[in-house]
Amino acid sequence: MLNKPVLVESLIVFIIVLFVHAVVWDRYSWCAVALAIQAFYVQFKWDRLLQLGGAVFQFRTAANSGLLPASMVIPLLGIAMKERCKSAGIVYFERFGIVVASTGMLVALFLSVIAVGVTKPVPTNTCILTGVAGSIIIYTMKHSLTVSEVIEVLEVLLIFVYLSMILLYLLPRCFTPGEALLVLGGISFVFNQLIKRSLNVIEGRGDPIDFFLLVAVVGVVLLGLFFTVLFIFMDSGTWISSMFFHMMTAVLGLGVIMPWLYRLIQRNPLFWLLQFLFQTQTRVYLLVYWTFLAASACGVVFYQNAKRSSESKKHQASTITRKYFHFIVVATYIPGLIYDRQLLYVAAVLCLAVFLFLEYIRYFRIKPFGQTLRHLLSLFLDERDSGPLILTHIYLLLGMSLPVWLFPRPCAPKGTLSGAGALVPYSGVLAVGVGDTIASVFGSTMGEIKWPGTKKTFEGTMTAVFAQIIAVALILIFDSSVNLNSSYAWILASVSLVSLLEAYTTQIDNLLLPLYLQIMFMV
């Protein structure tokens, strides 16, 4: 039997799905509802596999499979993007939204088939449901997609299959099945988009900052795969290996990534980046301010480690201490969202690349900083960092950045959407920076009434909702581009549902919550 928290989490996801399709009901709505129903049943099989140790790969154990909430994210994002771009009359991105939705459904269906296939005895009812859902999805795709779009969807699925086999084997206990679906599905889509755009380069077409995101993500992922395979055959902790690591990073960066980016943007990437960063005085002020905040975050890390050394080696950072970084990230993103979103977009990409590179140095114990990073970051580990990688800080960055990166700029007149859609770039700030932080701080210090079956409290959730409403009011005051057009009831419902999801989900909330809040705001 599914336990009560999983049932409530599933109910919240179903409500969000129905809310979305109450606004945008079309042929894809039948697919999304069918996918949600079969994902609910298959999630039960995945949970049983994880409990019995019957899964092919080693997944994160302190959580359920999370298949249902993860399965719905990419399809709902695609459907919301399709509707926004359709209303704006941008046919290219309307078709792109359809491809995104179809790809998300097919990848989620593939993961469901894997779970059903390895379950013994074979669950007859779940197989029938999966077959019905698959038939509806494939029938709809057949009558909605062109041949080139079908090929694109299959390409993403193929990349997803290979990435899953490689990364889930190399990185045991780092993901739940749902988290793997989100992370690897996103990386697969980025890989496919970069290959597609590299083969069809048209001078002057496309925004350089979009190409910068694609190349940066693919570059750091390929760098990690290269060194993971390499260090199977040699000890990564020696000085010779460390020198080779730094040398090959420079060679791959300057010899592969830079020329690749040059081909896409048709100009020198370094000169373009420097010109972009220092183009206006506002950008210089923002960069100086962000540098100060980064130094403050480093100061918190060093101070807490000094405190651990003086008190006890078993000392771990408290929940409130870890939320310091949430406050710092909020202070980082809000000025960027108000004054220069393009700069924030590029700065977040750079920060992601730096975070991943530092994680490689820590994971491979690259001298001279690898062991030091291991010692410093071990203080901030929690039950979600059960694998060889430390990913919580990267998930925090992704949760704040994804609404900025996924904002459909071509379909937004004057750079902003109408109604609740104007808050889409703020989804990460509201869900993670404000909601999750306030819920955690107030729930752990003053909460007494616990939600059934969880450690989260009623007081924490209600305080989170209230704090996010106050944050929306402050955004209205300070950001003149935001015009909600009396969509206050929808905003309150969206914030409340996502806050309830935070209380019941065992998935990485830094990644899941902003995406669901973005979906609700976009529709």
TrEMBL record:
Q: Which parts of the chain span the membrane according to its record? A: 12-41, 61-80, 92-116, 122-141, 153-171, 211-232, 244-262, 282-303, 324-339, 345-365, 386-406, 426-446, 458-478, 490-517
Question: One biological process GO term for this chain?
Answer: dolichyl monophosphate biosynthetic process
Per UniProt, the enzyme's principal EC class comes to: transferase
How does this chain sit within the bilayer?
A: Multi-pass membrane protein
Q: Which GO terms describe its cellular component?
A: endoplasmic reticulum membrane
Keyword Endoplasmic reticulum found: yes
| InterPro entries per record | Polypren_kinase
Molecular-function annotations in GO: dolichol kinase activity
Keywords on record: Endoplasmic reticulum, Kinase, Membrane, Transferase, Transmembrane, Transmembrane helix
EC number, as in UniProt = 2.7.1.108
Q: Which PANTHER family match?
A: DOLICHOL KINASE, TRANSMEMBRANE PROTEIN 15-RELATED
Which family is this sequence assigned to? Belongs to the polyprenol kinase family.
Protein name from the UniProt record = dolichol kinase
Q: What is the originating organism of this protein? A: Oceanodroma tethys (Wedge-rumped storm-petrel)
Q: What is the lineage of its organism?
A: Eukaryota, Metazoa, Chordata, Craniata, Vertebrata
